[in-house]
Design a protein that fits this description.
Helix content is 1%, strand content 39%. The chain is an all-beta fold and 632 residues long. It folds into 2 domains: 155 residues, Jelly Rolls; 300 residues, Methylamine Dehydrogenase, Chain H.
Length: 632
């Protein structure tokens, strides 16, 4: 049954990754807006396959898309997406394509772009994440170059935030200058004028949480912070704050007034009378102080949109959010296509370097840190083969992907300080981005969408690092910090020797809460609502923590093994590795039920876990292998 899905054959539509602030361009207005990301429980909105279902019964089993076909999919008002959402973030899967091709996703009502959202090959299920503005009618268009089935699962959206100012409309017609120098209708728009440059690439760093000039120093020239009165404060080359004016939402139709001389103080806007014909403007003298104007009249119709300012340089991509159930799972795809013979549909064991630890997925390949060899192995998850090995630092442990580069924490030794290596996942080029001034001990890593976070377990430091130049933005002291995690709002840090989990403000590093009694925790995971912590104890314990309230809500001790290490969320289940039990447990995130530990064997001493959107990956430290688990 399909409520709104529409096929357009051979046509081009005419006329055109928990919370984190960003600027996006709306598909309906092409204006730059301050927005926030809202995560959702993954929900399926489209599945064209025969006998397939969606969460609401619409856009299901509608049949394969023919070549050169565009499908219009309703987004707004479904699966938790509000009608005023600016854009949607989802996972797109091309299932069993008939020939090589690509999918293009764009807001309906606009010209189809040349860029591809997903390339596919025949006989292989291909998946990719995308974020796209929503069209004026609340829908998005999906164009298929070659015949294929399509699956779309949403897991978040962007919505307008506090209201960044758009481009200033054209100036209104000057009225006849009155003898008393009253500015007339243009006076009301005066305060909004300074905000215009926001559209040209100035990046708002965040809210100060206080009124007036910020009480702290800026980081870089041009940094902009907004106070509680919506005043913009800019950090200047003189290392001082400059008041750039109020950024309240954009004015209406009234543009700037005619060319003015030195204006006196403008009174409040009076009701606009009928405008007389404009006389020839003489040279404006110094205006006298305006009288108190009457109440502002009704806002006129909005003028035509001025040309958009030049966009600023895009920031570094945000960190991968908690791994949800991206697209149809491998087991579901393989069952649908009956291609269990393909490597992508099979569990596997891949030989890597000595003592593999940290795992990370870059959207295409899986990377694992070989601690004993000082290398990183790059693995193709579709063929289950090691593609390349690159040299990094001494004793690499944790790893994270920032959307452009792989970052690796090299622990170091007593003689060689720890460091962070930065790897180009395409070329394999490696640079040393940071050397730890405290010496050895680097371990855990996370990315908050702007900055890199790393823990030094031995020396008791948590670093916030600028990925552009490797400089330390914050240095926070916590006893034996181990795992570090970003939940979309806050930074969480566990302890190797202590028993607490700390919730930190990523802006200034302040401790927002300390959850005690957790135990010696080696791993953290986020399921969209709760933080999960695994303990390196006998027996092993898994703790479920309220991410907002900061209290432990559930303790799981049975059937998960001893000395727990890595923990990961796949969108539905929590997975945890038992180092001494040589097993991996699967836990229902909703009720904490341990599904089993026997169906998912691993190698000797399973340590860290990774998720590629379909499969769970396990680093087996004492076997020098990586196991690929296909969830059943």
């Amino acid at each position: 049954m399909s409520r709104s899905g529409r096929l357009i054959l051979g046509a081009v539509i005419a006329a055109g990754a928990v919370l984190g602030a960003t600027q996006i361009t709306s598909g309906s207005t092409n204006s730059t807006k301050e927005s926030v990301f809202v995560g959702l429980v993954p929900t399926r909105l489209l599945d064209t396959r025969e006998n397939a279902t969606t969460f609401d019964g619409f856009d299901q089993a509608v049949g394969r898309l023919d070549a050169n076909t565009t499908y219009e999919l309703d987004i707004a008002g479904r699966g938790g997406i509000p009608t005023d959402a600016l854009s949607v973030t989802a996972n797109l899967v091309a299932v069993n394509p008939s020939s090589p091709g690509h999918l293009t996703v764009y807001p309906c009502g606009f010209d189809r772009p040349l860029a591809s959202a997903l390339n596919y090959m025949p006989g292989v299920n291909n998946a990719n994440e995308f974020t796209v503005p929503i069209g004026d009618n609340g829908d998005i268009c999906i164009y298929a170059y070659a015949e294929t089935d399509i699956v779309v699962d949403i897991y978040g959206y962007y919505i307008a935030g506090s209201g960044g100012t758009g481009e200033q409309g054209p100036a209104g017609q000057d009225g006849t200058d009155g003898a008393d120098g009253q500015q007339g209708p243009a006076g009301a728009t005066g305060p909004a004028g300074p905000q215009g440059p926001v559209g040209t690439g100035i990046t708002v760093k965040g809210s100060t949480g206080e009124a007036g000039e910020p009480s702290f120093d800026g980081t870089d020239t041009g940094d902009v912070w907004i106070d509680t009165n919506n005043e913009a404060w800019v950090w200047t080359e003189q290392d001082a704050w400059d008041d750039a004016g109020n950024i309240q939402g954009p004015a209406g139709a009234d543009g700037a007034g005619g060319q003015d001389g030195a204006d006196g103080l403008t009174g409040e806007q009076g009701a606009t009378g009928a405008r007389g014909p404009a006389g020839t403007d003489g040279t404006d003298g110094a205006d006298g102080q305006g009288g108190a104007d009457g109440l502002t009249g009704e806002q006129g119709a909005t003028g035509a949109q001025g040309p958009a300012g030049t966009n600023g340089t895009n920031g570094t991509n945000g960190t991968d959010g908690t791994d949800g159930a991206d697209g149809a799972s491998s087991s579901a795809n393989c069952a649908a296509t009956l291609r269990w013979d393909l490597p992508a549909c099979q569990a596997a064991t891949v030989n890597v370097g000595g003592t593999p630890l940290g795992l990370v997925f870059d959207g295409t390949n899986v990377w694992v840190a070989n601690n004993a060899d000082g290398t990183m192995s790059k693995i193709d998850p579709t063929t289950n083969t090691e593609l390349v090995t690159v040299d990094v630092g001494i004793e690499p442990e944790g790893a994270v992907f920032d959307g452009a580069y792989i970052w690796v924490a090299n622990r170091g030794t007593n003689d060689v300080a720890g460091s962070l290596s930065k790897i180009d996942p395409t070329t394999g080029n490696v640079t040393t981005a940071f050397t730890d001034p405290q010496g050895k001990g680097l371990h855990g890593m996370a990315f908050d969408g702007t900055s890199i976070w790393a823990t030094n377990t031995t020396q008791g430091h948590v670093y916030k690092i600028d990925p552009a130049d490797g400089s330390v933005l914050l240095d926070i002291s916590i006893t034996s910090p181990k795992a570090v995690l970003f939940d979309g709002t806050s930074i969480w840090v566990s302890q190797e020797q202590g028993t607490s989990v700390f919730k930190l403000d990523p802006a200034d590093g302040a401790t927002l809460s300390e959850v005690t009694g957790i135990g010696k925790s080696f791993g953290l995971a986020f399921d969209g609502t709760h933080i999960w912590a695994s303990t390196n104890t006998n027996p092993g314990v898994v703790k479920k923590i309220d991410a907002i309230g900061g209290a432990a809500t559930e303790t799981i001790t049975s059937s998960v093994g001893n000395f727990l290490r890595g923990i990961r969320f796949d969108g539905t289940y929590i997975w945890v590795a038992s180092y001494t039990g040589n097993s991996v447990s699967k836990i229902d995130a909703a009720d904490g039920t341990v599904i089993n530990t026997t169906t998912y064997p691993s190698g000797t001493s399973p340590n860290e876990l990774g998720f590629d959107g379909t499969n769970i990956w396990v680093s087996n430290s004492d076997a020098d292998t990586v196991s690929k688990i296909v969830p059943l």
